[in-house]
Structures are given as structure tokens and as C-alpha cells.
Design goal:
The complex is a heterodimer of chains A (348) and B (87). With 348 residues, chain A is α/β, with parallel strands linked by helices. Chain A has two domains: 130 residues, HAD superfamily/HAD-like (Rossmann fold, 3-Layer(aba) Sandwich), CATH 3.40.50.1000; 197 residues, Aminopeptidase. An eight-stranded mixed β-sheet of chain A has the order 11-12-10-9-8-7-6-13, with helices on both faces. In chain A, strand 7 and strand 8 form a beta hairpin. The radius of gyration of chain A is 23 Å and the shape is elongated. The chains are: A alpha/beta (348), B mainly alpha (87).
């Protein structure tokens, strides 16, 4: 199979001569460049997030963006007189992105070179390509889920939450308690399958095995009586984080076998993995079975191994990178105290 | 590095994670449900960062993390160039 270019997850826009005509400080910015607003809206609809790296004074530039009705589309805009490579770095750090997932659009060859020199993996585009960005293969997505359409709002909620955490005086657990987190665990249905596939493909760090399944296989698993296949959503007072976790258990004669535990990296420090693991121990106890977990070591998922081991799992088999772990305690793990767990399916 | 210094740094980190009611160096962290797996993960990451260590698979056991004392012992052992424990 030919290598396809890595998916662009974030587009960073210059403003002067790229988003709008002319230069704001010289009396320009009276009109948008043709096709740019449509491109920005289309990328947003696909769940590709966007930001700004512009050399301008922040307040008037943001005011112009607002007047054009575009300000809300951009997360953590970087508007200052500093180098754009620094602006790009700030965006990578704030949004937790890898440079290969980022595209940078600027009409100035100097600025494109300056960014490329500091971030060789960032793809750069001339303003002439701005309107046609959505047609590039690297900006195409296979399908658009509810979560992709809401992705920008979720990121914005994450940024607000992070700011609140920085300003919070108490302990991490007290902060989590203030979030009023509600987690909803439901069985995977056909409507969830695209998001399920998206999570299995996009998640590397918080993925216990990295197993991927075709749409047909996922559908079969969702309908199989031999499997318990759950998806979880998360809400808190900053907003709806969407569907953020997956748990797949296989019913075996003596044990429930955990095949897949996935948590979206966006919610990494909020205890969702702990809660799904707790749920798995509770299900196993309810069925009177042991709980075993397959773990396939990859380059990125060491975090998942640590999670299992310190939640009370021991290794019972080892075959190269393939491990089988078993929950070794008599009592199931309770849900974390800072989280309310709901089961809308129950009683249905 | 002195054991006392290591213990104090770990203690300081733990009380940032969770308000401590009489947390001692020998408090059983798992039994008292002091540690959820979320916090366990953050503790491992903290220890690696703070003491410039890379813990191996065999270091990641409840035995090595069940008290501040046990964590400090693990850190000292690894700083002294000891290999992964046999836990």
C-alpha cells in the first residue's frame, strides 16, 4: 500500500495577505480573500481544528476576525510581533499536537521558511492554496462523526478547564471534584461505530492493545452475546467531551477477557481509564469470573501498562510483546469518588 | 541521594495530588484507597522526571509503590545503579 500523507489535524493561519486582503496596520483587511471563509468553515465541519499565527497587535486583529464572523473558529490564536516559529510551538504545546499533524498557511515565503526551519515536519502552504485546502488529500477525513463536528468546542472547553486548573489552589483531586464530571456508560450500538473506529485509529498512548477492527467486525462485536462492548461519554461543567472511552470484554468459560481499553488522550488526566477498569472488575465479579486483560506493548502505550499494574493486575503469561494480566484482588475496584457514573441502558 | 530527601519530595508531590489526612511515609496507599490508578500513573511519571530515572516493567509493582518508604527504596536502588527489581 502506498504511503498516504499523514492526516492534518490542525491548520494554522496567517492573517495579513492570507485570511484577508492587505495588511491591517496599513489600512487593509477590508475584505476576506476569496474562498477563505468557506475553507475555514469546511475544515471546521470536518473536525480539523484551526489557529492563527500573525504578526499584529492582538486586540485590533481579533476585532477584525470578529467583524468577519471568524473569531470563534480559531483556538488559542497567537498574535504578536514575535517569530512565527515560536507561535507555532505555543500552539503545538497548548493543543498537545505533533508537528506532522499541523499545516501552516502564509503568503510570505520568508515566514514559511522560518517555520519550516524550526519545525521541519510542519507542512507549509502558500496563501494561493488557501481556498483549496479542503480538497487536499491530507485534509480529507473518512467520515464526519458527531464528535468531529464538535471537536473545536471540546478543545475550547479543554482550554478553559486547563486555565481553571492552573489558577486552582487546592489538590488535583479537589480540582477534579469541582468539575462535576458525569460519565455515561452505554453498550456500543450501530450509531457509535464510526466514533468507535475513530477512537481505535486515533488513540495510541491510552490503548491497551492497539487492535483495530473493520466496521463489519465492530458491528459483529456489538451484537455478539459473547462480548460486552461499551462506550463512554463524559460531561462536566465546562462542556461535553463527547465519547471518550471504549471497553471490550470477551466472555470466556472462566474469565472475562479484556480485549480493548481505549481512552481519548484529550481526557488523559481525568480518571476515565481508572473508571472503565473499575467497571470491568465489577462486571467480572457480577458474573463470578476472573478478569483477565490482554496487553500488547507498543511504542506509545506504556502508560496503559502502568495503569493495569498499579490497579492490582499481575502478569500471568508473557509472549514477547503480548502479555496476559489478571486482576488479583478479591474486591472489585470502586469508581473514583470525583466521578458520577450513569448507565442509561439499565432498565431499558 | 539521602532517603529522607527522596521521601520528602515524594510526600510533597502526593499532597499536591490529594489532600493528606495524616499521610505518613509508611501509610498504605493502596489499601486506604489513597491512590486511584490515575494518581498511580502520575506518581510513576513524577518519580521518573524528578529523579531522572527510567523505570522498567519489573519496577512497576504494587510492592514498590505501596508506601512512600517503598518508593524511596526503589528510587535509591535505581539511583545506585541497581537493575530492575525482582518484584
Amino acid at each position: 500500500m502506498a504511503d498516504k500523507p499523514a492526516q492534518v489535524k490542525c491548520v494554522i493561519w496567517d492573517l495579513d495577505g492570507t485570511v484577508w486582503e492587505g495588511t491591517l496596520t496599513e489600512g487593509g483587511a477590508q475584505a476576506l480573500r476569496p474562498g477563505v471563509a468557506d475553507a475555514i468553515r469546511e475544515l471546521d465541519r470536518r473536525g480539523i481544528i484551526q489557529s492563527v499565527a500573525s504578526k499584529n497587535d492582538a486586540a485590533p486583529a481579533l476585532k477584525r476576525l470578529e467583524a468577519f464572523g471568524l473569531a470563534d473558529y480559531f483556538l488559542c490564536p497567537q498574535i504578536s510581533w514575535g517569530p512565527k516559529s515560536g507561535a507555532v510551538q505555543a500552539i503545538l504545546d497548548t493543543l498537545n499536537l505533533k508537528p506532522e499533524a499541523v499545516a501552516f498557511v502564509d503568503d510570505s515565503p520568508f515566514e514559511r521558511d522560518e517555520v519550516r526551519f524550526a519545525h521541519p515536519k510542519v507542512r507549509t502552504y502558500d496563501a494561493a492554496q488557501a481556498a483549496s485546502l479542503p480538497q487536499l488529500p491530507e485534509c480529507c477525513v473518512r467520515f464526519i462523526t458527531q464528535d468531529s463536528a464538535n471537536r473545536r468546542k471540546m478543545y475550547q472547553a479543554d482550554l478553559n478547564r486547563q486555565a481553571a486548573e492552573r489558577d486552582f489552589g487546592g489538590s488535583a483531586e479537589e480540582f477534579l471534584t469541582t468539575l462535576d464530571m458525569r460519565m455515561e456508560i452505554t453498550r456500543v450500538t450501530q450509531e457509535d461505530l464510526q466514533r468507535v473506529e475513530e477512537l481505535t485509529v486515533r488513540t495510541h498512548q491510552l490503548n491497551s492493545t492497539g487492535y483495530t477492527y473493520s466496521y463489519e467486525q465492530l458491528l459483529a462485536l456489538a451484537q455478539s452475546p459473547e462480548h460486552i462492548f461499551c462506550i463512554c461519554g463524559l460531561q462536566d461543567r465546562y462542556g461535553d467531551s463527547g465519547k471518550v472511552g471504549l471497553l471490550l470484554l470477551e466472555r470466556q468459560a472462566q474469565a472475562l477477557r479484556l480485549k480493548l481499553l481505549i481512552v481519548s488522550c484529550r481526557v488523559m488526566t481525568r480518571g476515565i481509564g481508572s473508571a472503565l477498569l473499575a467497571y470491568a472488575t465489577q462486571l467480572a465479579q457480577a458474573e463470578g469470573k476472573a478478569l483477565q486483560a490482554e496487553f500488547l506493548e507498543t511504542e506509545h502505550n506504556r502508560i496503559m501498562y502502568i495503569t493495569y499494574k498499579l490497579a492490582g493486575f499481575d502478569e500471568v503469561e508473557e509472549d514477547g510483546a503480548n502479555l496476559l494480566l489478571e486482576y488479583a484482588k478479591a474486591e472489585p475496584i470502586p469508581f473514583p469518588p470525583y466521578l458520577t457514573v450513569e448507565f442509561p441502558d439499565a432498565g431499558a | 541521594m539521602e532517603a529522607q530527601v527522596i521521601k520528602e519530595r515524594i510526600y510533597q508531590f502526593l499532597i499536591q495530588l490529594k489532600q493528606a489526612d495524616g499521610l505518613q511515609y509508611d501509610t498504605e496507599l493502596f489499601q486506604s484507597k489513597y491512590i486511584t490508578s490515575l494518581f498511580a500513573l502520575q506518581i510513576v511519571q513524577f518519580i521518573e522526571r524528578e529523579f531522572h530515572l527510567k523505570l522498567g516493567r519489573r519496577d512497576i509493582t504494587e510492592q514498590n509503590f505501596h508506601t512512600i518508604d517503598a518508593m524511596a527504596e526503589l528510587v535509591q536502588r535505581r539511583l545506585a545503579g541497581g537493575g530492575e527489581g525482582n518484584g
